[in-house]
């Protein structure tokens, strides 16, 4: 199948893949994935509703949490159409432009989530290491600028990916390894030289995920140093407890991402189902667990959630 990058009518479609070897269980798999979608969408929508309605939650920490919830909804809605088509309706073809658009949004929201976790770590650093300056450092205007910076950075980093792919000829069978379009999967398919694509993809990973994770680690080193200066063990634990939700969010985002990267790097040595499973965990688990973690660990959200669900006063 040939593809001329200069002629949109000849751009080839792609074939989506479910879970190899489990074709007879596709409906059960979608039932599982559908449950994860429902938990993710309802959970993040609840977080946004509670923060909007409760005036006491109109603080920088919860503004960043709102941004994280919106981003997680974006991740879920980015993959939902093709996952639904593949596992429920067995529609495996996706047009070139639709695949490029989905790839853009998946990676855009992924880079954005990394940036949000970084600014949330800065919020925790200021709250613990400079509590007296918290209100003056994290003003509403500064929080808005930080959020916009994260979004603009993500757009600038991800936008060239589909542009660079579109210039290449596609002449293979164009079968993807997943029920959605990912950049590491797509760059295996062109017949032309993908050196620029590989270099750009690696530079994006290093300049976003690499830098963000290093700065998050640095912020927690500084937080830990500040906490160790507190004389009372009870106060130390109380202070660290304010970071537990964010630390869990960081772990459930970065650990699966490292797993996906390792599986892609050693593709020839790793069974295909492992690579597919890691990608599913990376895209489905963080949007589902983030609202659960913050609902459990954040007293104000937990109380409001119980009040809504049970109709009781807390």
From TrEMBL:
GO BP of this protein = cellular response to lipid
Matches recorded under Pfam families: 7tm_4 (PF13853)
This protein's source sits in the domain of life called Eukaryota
User: Start and end of every G-protein coupled receptors family 1 profile domain?
Assistant: 43-294
Q: Which residues cross the membrane?
A: 28-51, 63-84, 104-122, 143-165, 199-223, 244-264, 276-296
Q: Where in the cell is it found?
A: Cell membrane; Membrane
A GO cellular component entry from the record? plasma membrane
Q: Does the keyword Nucleotidyltransferase apply?
A: no
Write down the SUPFAM superfamilies for this protein, in alphabetical order: Family A G protein-coupled receptor-like
Q: How does it sit in the membrane?
A: Multi-pass membrane protein
Give the UniProt keywords, A-Z: Cell membrane, G-protein coupled receptor, Membrane, Olfaction, Receptor, Sensory transduction, Transducer, Transmembrane, Transmembrane helix
**Signal sequence segment:** none
Does the keyword section mention Transmembrane? yes
As one GO molecular function, the record gives:
olfactory receptor activity
Family membership, please give it: Belongs to the G-protein coupled receptor 1 family.
Functional description taken from the UniProt entry: Putative odorant or sperm cell receptor.
Protein's name in the database: Olfactory receptor
């Amino acid at each position: 199948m040939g593809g001329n990058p200069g002629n949109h009518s000849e751009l080839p479609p792609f074939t989506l893949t479910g879970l190899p070897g489990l074709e007879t269980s596709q409906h059960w798999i979608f039932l599982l994935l559908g449950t994860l979608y429902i938990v993710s969408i309802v959970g993040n929508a609840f977080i946004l509703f509670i923060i909007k309605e409760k005036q006491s939650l109109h603080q920088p920490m919860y503004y960043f949490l709102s941004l994280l919830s919106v981003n997680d909804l974006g991740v879920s809605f980015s993959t939902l159409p093709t996952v639904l088509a593949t596992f429920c309706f067995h529609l495996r073809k996706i047009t070139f432009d639709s695949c490029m658009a989905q790839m853009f949004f998946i990676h855009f929201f992924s880079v954005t989530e990394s940036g949000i976790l970084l600014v949330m770590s800065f919020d925790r650093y200021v709250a613990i290491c400079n509590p007296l300056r918290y209100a003056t450092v994290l003003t509403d205007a500064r929080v808005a600028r930080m959020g916009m910076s994260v979004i603009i950075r993500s757009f600038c980093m991800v936008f060239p990916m589909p542009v660079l792919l579109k210039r290449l000829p596609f002449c293979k069978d164009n079968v993807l390894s997943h029920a959605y379009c990912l950049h590491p999967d797509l760059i295996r398919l062109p017949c032309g030289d993908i050196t620029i694509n590989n270099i750009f993809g690696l530079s994006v990973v290093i300049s976003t995920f690499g830098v963000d994770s290093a700065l998050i680690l640095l912020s927690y080193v500084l937080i830990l140093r500040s906490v160790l200066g507190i004389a009372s063990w009870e106060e130390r634990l109380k202070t660290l407890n304010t970071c537990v939700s964010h630390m869990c969010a960081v772990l459930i985002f970065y650990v699966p991402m490292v797993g996906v990267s390792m599986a892609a790097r050693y593709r020839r040595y790793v069974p295909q189902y492992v690579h597919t499973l890691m990608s599913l965990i990376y895209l489905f688990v963080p949007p589902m667990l983030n609202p659960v973690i913050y609902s459990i660990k954040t007293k104000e959200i937990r109380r409001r959630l119980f009040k809504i669900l049970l109709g009781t006063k807390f």
